[in-house]
Design brief:
Largest sheet: none
Strand content: under 5%
Structural class: mainly alpha
Distance between the termini: 59 Å
Radius of gyration: 22 Å
Number of strands: 0
Order of helices and strands: HHHHHH
Length: 193
């Protein structure tokens, strides 16, 4: 809940003076980093003290996507610091994987992969770097931001394809198992009295 509540404050801080205030850009970056870091702390505390709830399972990915989505959209428009296709690729992948998880839920739960976790870390680091007032910082920081963002986009696309393949396999295997069970049930002969 706290992460969700931080999003409007983050957005406001980022947009103060049209995104040109060094102080408010640093504040926005700080809010983003705290909110993103709270995800790990939240998960640790929930598991450590057995506080995992259905509400938490629902709100956690929503909070993550809201925070990342807000940052990407605002960095693209109105600030114009990222090309339009960056949030489109990242958010389309996130939406696609979320819908896929719901679609295969009746067959199995698709856990987060190592690649998915790497994708999240790269996205958070890249966004954090782009939130900084890059025009006031040494040029190499901007270069690092673009390199990390490029890596994040590659891993985002690759893991999206991997999740798609995994979802297809889960569905295929479940259908095969159901057909096998049905065939075994119909070929068993007359039931015993």
């Amino acid at each position: 809940m706290a992460r969700i509540l931080l999003v409007p404050f983050f957005a406001w801080a980022l947009l103060v003076d049209g995104g040109d205030s060094v102080t408010w850009r640093l504040v926005a970056t700080g809010i983003f980093v705290v909110a993103a870091s709270s995800d790990r702390l939240d998960g640790y505390l929930a598991r450590r003290y057995d506080l995992v709830t259905d509400l938490g399972k629902l709100l956690d990915p929503i909070a993550d996507k809201l925070l990342v989505g807000t940052a990407l959209v605002l960095l693209t428009w109105p600030l114009g610091e990222l090309p339009w296709w960056v949030p489109v690729v990242i958010l389309a992948r996130e939406l696609g994987v979320t819908l896929l998880r719901f679609a295969v839920l009746r067959y199995a739960v698709m856990p987060a992969s190592r690649g998915g976790k790497l994708k999240t870390v790269l996205q958070l680091v890249a966004i954090s770097l782009f939130l900084l007032p890059l025009s006031y910082l040494p040029a190499w920081i901007g270069v690092v931001a673009w390199v990390v963002l490029g890596a994040a986009i590659v891993v985002t696309v690759v893991t999206g394809v991997e999740y798609g393949y995994q979802g297809w396999r889960l569905r295929r295997d479940a259908i095969r198992a159901a057909r096998g069970a049905q065939a075994a049930g119909t070929s068993g002969g007359a039931p015993a009295a």
